[in-house]
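Here is this case:
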Amino acid sequence: MISKRLGQELKMKRDFKQPAQEVIASVLRTSDMYQYRLRQFFREYNLTHPQYNILRILRGADSPLPILEIASRLVSHVPGITGLIDKLEDRALVARQRCDGDRRIWYVRLTTAGNELLDTLEGPNDEIERHLAGHLSADECRQLVTLLDKARDIPARDD
């Protein structure tokens, strides 16, 4: 047993069989808590976290990006990226343009309205992030990120 707290939160009667089970349960529990609070926050702006992530990716890009490139940069895997971009386009937060060289490819760019929304969200988003992780020191944040990076380096299975 690594920690009694998670077992208490989940009202478990027995310990986890192995540390890996507790690690996975803890990461999932933490992710669920963060996602719930972020959903509440972004709902106030009629956005989802993946839509916000798309806007941030486009803001950070030097030029319009193909949809598949945006998908590859998202924090969370999203199966319906085209639908997310459709909704952002309906709100005039992004604009699409077909590629001249390959008509199957659509480029997406941030609009002025999208940029203004990101400006509006900057302070409140910083505040929610501080609320969620601000109780961790800078060193603890670095350690946690390092451990999570290592956790995502899952070796390939020999099936």
